[in-house]
Amino acid sequence: VQLQASGGGYVQAGDSLRLSCAASGDTFRNRKIGWFRQAPGQEREFVAAIIWNGGHTKYGDSVKGRFTVYKDSARNTVSLQMSSLKPEDKAVYYCGITNVVLSGITNANYYSYWGQGTLVTVSS
């Protein structure tokens, strides 16, 4: 399966942005899809995840209440709606898929496939 992340860009603090993750070669069915981000010199940080079957979601503490992850079954995509963006949200955002149990969904090491990343820049 190949993942394609898109939607990054340059925004002002307080703006919104929507990222999308599309799968080709397979579907998201029976998978967990996660969004992570990585700033220069930092480790990859968990942002949000969704279980495709059932739609259960989980968020990192730094984005709770501002970001929403959701799926579009018709388009076989997972989107990350980001609101009230802050300068500290600036990073390259990656989507990945995993079959790990729910307790491991925040650990990037459990993800098997990754998209190429999309850059989000937030100016103050």
> Considering DSSP H and I runs of 4 or more, what fraction of the residues is helical?
under 10%
Radius of gyration: 13 Å
SS field, number of helical segments? 0
Give the class from helix and strand content and strand pairing.
mainly beta
Q: Characterize the overall form.
A: globular
- Biggest β-sheet description: 7 strands, mixed
- Report the average pLDDT across residues: 95
**Strand segment count:** 11
Percent strand equals over 45%
Unreliably modeled segments:
none
Distance between the termini: 37 Å
In quaternary terms, these chains amount to: single chain
* H and E order: EEEEEEEEEEE
List keywords for this structure.
four-stranded antiparallel sheet, 124 residues, mainly beta
Task: Tell me about this structure.
A hairpin with a 4-residue loop joins strand 7 and strand 8. The chain is mostly beta strands and 124 residues long. The protein contains no helices and eleven strands. 0% of the residues lie in helices and 50% in strands. The strands form two sheets. Strands 2, 4, 5, 6, 9, 10 and 11 form a seven-stranded mixed β-sheet that branches.
